[in-house]
Every structure is written in structure tokens, then in C-alpha cells.
Write a structure and sequence with these properties.
Chain lengths: ~450, ~450
């Protein structure tokens, strides 16, 4: 799939932002800092103790937040799995890499799809490889399960995990025992277990992560730990069975909390806590239609699949002792699109030569500057549905996801002041025509630019 | 209003529970511990940083929670102001003291009412007076504004505050400037300012509280600091004007947060932090119909005036360095009705000789035992609407409060598992007939007992 790289450069919009960086001579003998991204699946904004859940106990994440910074206005790039991951790993709205419905056949990739994240895309792993990071992906990939799309083709030295969602390959009826889900567990590009024993996935991912940390006491590393859980069907190991007041979903989140504690502990034991930035977040909001088996978006409206806040605003905790201020709650605007430029700044590595939609957030994480971001566009598949600028959010289109209904167009858009009204209850469009006008202009400009993007799969049959 | 005290004794029900205590000889020279209850007005379950609000900053309350225990299943006695305060101060469901609609003319007391909390009721202040506590009430009283009902008639040595809600006596049109609300500010039983300058109420209450702490470095004291805010109309002092991302409501809550910090600091400076139990909570849920001027119940359903969780479950933080475990989140069942028995245990003081609906929670607060409570009844005025036992809650009646609509009766009741479904989304009555049967029996038993309670105002014209 040849790409016209020059084309990208023609797409400079207000959302395509130059990120300052410099690649100096590495005069220091100190290796650059490590990066650990813990990315869980379908966790809601309200599902952690430190984000207000009354009965899910998350002492390790709560402590991580106390020792670091807890962000309250962090967004992911999409409200479902595949595009959210593409956005995080590339620093680009997922429509740029084609990882969105309209360019792929469905909202996410399925086992019968033969496409994946294009090889031309540059991931965080590839950026950090320029500075000789050891790189490992553990867990859910969901950017193509065929050999040519696996993590090892996108900058990761090694991979251990389930390549797509754990509810796919459901070939044996409606039973929820692990054996009835036929998903494969892979090491690099080999299937090592099928069906994967999902009861022990969180535990095995964790052991693999801890081992990776221990194996790299000196060298810089990037660990992308993308848990399969708490995506439905829910599984947890024996030690976490029936321990949570919140029931099965709580058990599963509490095992993830344990896992986070294990990773941080391994960093401390390897004496690399002071030189490791750890970020914890989730790929999209809670799967609300699953009732008690799904999570909670807390005070936010909507969940997975929606462009209401609950679909795309996620818990995010940043931890880096001595660098990220402790005991801080930050309402600064930050997104998963910002991780790649931030990782590049961390490693003092060059950025990819193409339009990016993220900002270097290192000064924000370190408490030295406010966020440089003031705008974010909410997409559903290939379509732009809403835009945020400062505290204001305008919904031009909204579409119920489960079950999918036709999109509803709003003119004038629904307007919410998210900092005064985080639950999107009080449409104030009538009172603020000047804000509506400004957001409309930005939105239309973005829609126009996005419409010109090529479909990476146009030449193939997706 | 003569009372037949014996009558009370005939009303022993399952909700009337003997609380073990002993009044030993005071062989120690140490005074008993101090008690500070900070009780705010209309704050929602989701309105503090440590309960998940994204844009209200509450660093002092967050720190108080880190240094103490944050409760996630704490209930107040009623979903509106007057009965909630009666319940907290007497340890009895407010229908016992007559402080409920049906016994008083409206849902709360108004300036044209000539009744108040009956003198025969025994308050926490009176319990602690038995052990020579210095006692002070600051802020909102709302249990009768005539001289014979003021705090100084109910065990408090002194009083400084506004005797009812700050939106009463609204005699000068629809302007929100303080001068347009004619509420009085009182010292003991004298009006010292009218209209009260509401902009400085939180600040003046705080200074008064700090002064009281400083004046009692040796003696045991009970401080009841019942803030007028964040009840609407919202006011805050100059230093807190336009400082919160959340707007006016946020400014007001952030000033209260500052106030809490001031009180804790005064305790530390007086070297009495180690012998002072401080409890922070609110009287009822957020006033949702006020839109952005009202608070948020977070993930809970409903708000002020309702028997959904959002109306009656509140933030509660307990702080007592060296006694209440630090950095603990507890989902144990505890209510404002338990404060009086807990205060009595703290002071080793005798309990009032009448039915109580509370439990001594001192062992729970100190992390030594689980909560002895497993049941709680949700009332609206004189009516029982719902009951909780363990994680289960059954709604037999529900009634929208703003605007008030007729009660809706449910048979079978709506049944929710609150620990798995804190947002009361998934009625599971059909799946659990045995739970419904058990809760129905307990509920009917309670309704029957409550129906026999006398109206303390039957002989008067309320």
C-alpha cells in the first residue's frame, strides 16, 4: 500500500500542530527515561476508587494517584477499541490511518478482516526505537491480527497477548466459560494457546510485564501493557474470584488494580521508578448496555460508542516519582493523541514526518506548564460529531450506539459548558451564539480537511 | 408540650436498638476526646474531588480523606433540611421528634412556623453536656427560630448563625444580591445583623469556629459547624470569587474546603488533633432542578428531596489522627442517625432514655470492627418509602420532589443491588423474590411501628 507522503503535508490544519523538539547529541551517559503505558479495555470514568466509585476498591491506583497526578479531563481518540488504539499509538486522529468505520468494514476490526494498521504508520514504539528503547507489547492489539500487522511489525521487539477482543471467535454457543471463546493467545507471531485461558490473562500479562521490567534494569524501555479486561466476557483469576462488593466486574477491575501495583513495585525494585513515566488509562467508556457486567461513567453522560463525555473521557493517572508532582489533580485538557509527541520529547527522539494531532505534554506532566491543547474533536468512525474548545463542547451530530440508530443532526448544535456542567445536562446554545459560531467554524474547517484524507485501503478490498 | 416518656418505651422495634455503653468512674485525668461535626447544605455525593468531581478542587477535604477514612455508603436521615438535622442531632428517625411533613406544615420549617424541635428531645450537645463538654453551634439551625427552639435551648452554650435556610425571607424581589434576602444572623438568641451579609457567612463561621477551638485547648468540646452553603442562593467571599472552573457553585464549595482546612489547622495548632474526632458530611443531596447552580450526585440517581440514593447518600469523611485509620475507603453502612450513640461512646456518656435508631460507630471509625448496622429506612416526610438491608434496596413508594408529584406505589417493589448497581439502573425484583419478601416484611413492620408514633404537635396549632 504505497502512500504519498507529500500528501500528508498538504493537510496542515489547525489540528495539525508542530511540536517543538530537538535531537541533540547525547552527551549524557544517562539513558533516557522509560515509558510504561497501561491501557485497559472498556473501563469507565467512574470505575476507580479515586474517581468516585463506591464499591470497587483500587488501593494501588489510588496510591498511584497520590504519588502522581490524576487527570480529570483526559480524552481518548475514539469511543471504540480499534480506532482508540490507532490514535494512541500514532498520535493521529484514527481517520488518518484508516482505522475507522467507513475505511474498515465495521466499527472495529474482526477476525475475518484482512487489514490492519498500515505499515507506513509510525507508532510510539517506532519513535522510541530511534533511541534504542527495548519495546514490548503485552495484551490486546486489535490493529490487525495477520502476521504483517502484528506489534512486531510496528516497532515492538516482542509481543504477548490476544490480538483482538476477547468476545470475538465465539464459536461454541452462549456459554461464558473460557473454553467457549476461541480467541488465540500469541507470542510474537505464533499462537501459543487457543482458546486462551481468559481466567489467567490479567495475571499472565502482569507476570510478563514484571519480567520485562526486571530484564531491563539499565536500558531504556517502552512497555505497552494493554489489558484484555475489563472487556466482556469478564474473567479473573482464582485469587480475585468473589472478592469485590461490585461483583464480577469489580473482581476484574480489582485484579487490574493489583496488576498496576505489581508493575510499580517491579519498577521500584529495579531502582528505575525515578526514571520511568507510567501512564494509566482506558481505551473508551463503559459498555453500558451490558448492565451490571459493564462499568460506570460516573457523573458523565453516555458510554462506549458515544460522543457524549462518558464514551471518550477516561481516568488517566501519571506517575513518575520526582518528576510528576505528587498529590495533584489536574483538569487540564489532554488526550491519548498527545502520547506520541510526549514520548518523543521524553526520549529526545525525532517526530514522524507527517501531520500529527498531538502535543508534547511533558511540561504539563511535570507540572511546569499548562496544557498547550485547547481543542479536541469527537469522532464516530470517519465522521466528526462534536468539538470541544476550552470548556465549551458543541454536538453537531449524535448517534446512539447500542443499538445503533441513525445519526441525529443538531442545528444549532447542542452546547455544553463542560467545566460547569460535566454531565452535559444543560444545553446553553441559545445563550451563547458567539461561542456556537466559533465552534461551528472550527468544526466545519476540520470536517472539510478530514474529508480530503485518502482511504489507505482504497486499493484493497477491506 | 408534655410528653409521656413511657410511651417511647413501648415502641421498641427492630430499628430501636440498645447501644452498649458504660459510664465508668473517670479515673483518668485526660479529658474525653473532642467532637467536631462539619455539616454542609445541599452538597451532592459527587461534588468533592475525592468523590470524583472533575472541576471542583477540594485539596483540604482530599487531604482530610487521605489522613482519615472516606465512607462511600453513608446516609443522612432525610432528603431535606429540617428532618435531616433533627435526625443527626437526636439519633432518631425525624418522625419521632415530629420534624417531618405531616407533623409540621411543610417539608421543612419556615419563618412563619411557630414550632421547632421539642425541648424533650435530647441532642448530641445535651449528651455531651453530661460530661462537661463546651458546646457551640455555628451556622444553619433550621429546627425552630423562636427563642424557645434555638440551639441554646438544646445543649449548646452558644450559637452564631442563620436560623433557617438562606432563601427564606426573600422579601425584596428576585435579585440575588445579599441585601435582597432578609435572613437574620444571630448570636445566641439575638439578631445581630439583618439581612445577613451572605457573602461573608462561610468566612465568618470559619473564624468563629477557629476561635472556639483556640479558646478550649484543654477542655473537651463539641463544635457543630453547619454551613449555610452551598444552599442556593450561593454566596462566597471576595477571595473565592471566580476562582473555580465549576463556576459559582464551585467557588462556594472551594471556600468550604478552605474552611475545613482552617478548622483542622486550628486543631493542630492547639495540639488537640490527636484527641479530636472530626466528621464532615452534608444534610441531603444536590438541588438538581437548580441546574448549574445545584450540585451533582455523581453516579447516584436522583437528588435532594428524593429517596433515590442521590437524595440521601452523602460524602462522609472521618478524621482523627492516630485513631481513625488513614488512607482508608470504607463501604460500610453508616448513617447520620449513628452520630449520637457514637458521640456518647466517645465521651463515655449515658444515652438518652428513649428509643434510638443509631449505633455506636466508634469501633468502625477506629477500624476495629465492621458496622453493626445492616438496615436503613428511607423516609419522605412522615412516610416510609424504601428500605435497605445489606446490599439490597427495595422501593415501595417513590415520589418526584421538584415539582412534587403524587407518590407512585410499586408492588412488587423496585429492587436494586446497590453494591453492584449503585446508580439504581437495573431492577432485579423478578430474579430475587426471596429478597423482596424479606424486605417487604421488614418494611411493613417499620411502617406499622411508625404509624403508632404520636404527633408532638397534636395539642398545638403547627
Amino acid at each position: 500500500m504505497p502512500r504519498n507522503v507529500c500528501l500528508w503535508w498538504s493537510l496542515l490544519t489547525l489540528f495539525v500542530l508542530p511540536v517543538a523538539f530537538s535531537v541533540g547529541d547525547d552527551t549524557s551517559s544517562e539513558p533516557p527515561p522509560n515509558l510504561v503505558v497501561i491501557f485497559v479495555d472498556d473501563l469507565g470514568y467512574g470505575d476507580l476508587g479515586c474517581y468516585g466509585h463506591p464499591t470497587i476498591r483500587t488501593p494501588h491506583l489510588d496510591r498511584m494517584a497520590q504519588q502522581g497526578t490524576r487527570f480529570t479531563q483526559f480524552y481518548v481518540a475514539a469511543n471504540v477499541c480499534t480506532p482508540s488504539r490507532a490514535g494512541l499509538l500514532t498520535g493521529r486522529y484514527p481517520i488518518r490511518s484508516g482505522m475507522v468505520e467507513g475505511m474498515i468494514p465495521r466499527r472495529v476490526l474482526f477476525p475475518d478482516d484482512t487489514i490492519g494498521l498500515p505499515a507506513e504508520e509510525v507508532t510510539i514504539a517506532e519513535v522510541l526505537k530511534q533511541r534504542n528503547y527495548a519495546t514490548k507489547a503485552i495484551g490486546k492489539w486489535h490493529l490487525g491480527h495477520l502476521p504483517e500487522f502484528l506489534p512486531t511489525t510496528q516497532g515492538f521487539d516482542s509481543y504477548f497477548g490476544v490480538p483482538y477482543s476477547n468476545d470475538m471467535d465465539h464459536v461454541r454457543g452462549n456459554d461464558e466459560r473460557p473454553a467457549y471463546w476461541n480467541v488465540p493467545l500469541m507470542r510474537d507471531s505464533e499462537i501459543v494457546e487457543r482458546p486462551a485461558d481468559q481466567n489467567t490473562l490479567t495475571k499472565r500479562y502482569t507476570l510478563e510485564a514484571v519480567e520485562f521490567v526486571r530484564e531491563h534494569p539499565e536500558n531504556p524501555f517502552f512497555l505497552y501493557l494493554a489489558h484484555t479486561m475489563p472487556h466482556i466476557p469478564l474473567f479473573r483469576s482464582k485469587e480475585f474470584t468473589d472478592i469485590s462488593l461490585r461483583g464480577l466486574y469489580g473482581d476484574v477491575v480489582e485484579e487490574i488494580d493489583w496488576s498496576v501495583g505489581q508493575v510499580l513495585e517491579a519498577l521500584r525494585e529495579s531502582n528505575c521508578a525515578q526514571r520511568t513515566l507510567v501512564l494509566f488509562t482506558s481505551d473508551n467508556g463503559p459498555w453500558l448496555v451490558q448492565n451490571e457486567a459493564g462499568g460506570s461513567a460516573g457523573l458523565l453522560r453516555g458510554g462506549k460508542g458515544s460522543t457524549w463525555e462518558g464514551g471518550m473521557r477516561e481516568p488517566m493517572i501519571a506517575w513518575w516519582p520526582g518528576h510528576v508532582p505528587a498529590n495533584r489533580v489536574s483538569a487540564e485538557l489532554i488526550t491519548s493523541l498527545d502520547l506520541l509527541p510526549t514520548a518523543a520529547a521524553l526520549a529526545n527522539a525525532p517526530l514522524p514526518d507527517r501531520p500529527l494531532d498531538g502535543y508534547n505534554m511533558l511540561p504539563l506532566l511535570e507540572g511546569k506548564e499548562d496544557s498547550p491543547r485547547d481543542t479536541f474533536v469527537y469522532h464516530r468512525g470517519a465522521h466528526s460529531h462534536a468539538i470541544r474548545k476550552g470548556p465549551w463542547k458543541a454536538h453537531f451530530i449524535n448517534q446512539t450506539s447500542y443499538p445503533t440508530k441513525d445519526p441525529v443532526h443538531y442545528d444549532p448544535p447542542l452546547l455544553y459548558h463542560l467545566e460547569k456542567d460535566p454531565s452535559e445536562k444543560y444545553n446553553v446554545a441559545e445563550n451563547h451564539p458567539e461561542v456556537v459560531a466559533e465552534l461551528r467554524q472550527l468544526f466545519e474547517q476540520h470536517v472539510e480537511e478530514i474529508a480530503r484524507l485518502p482511504n489507505p485501503f482504497a486499493a484493497t478490498k477491506p
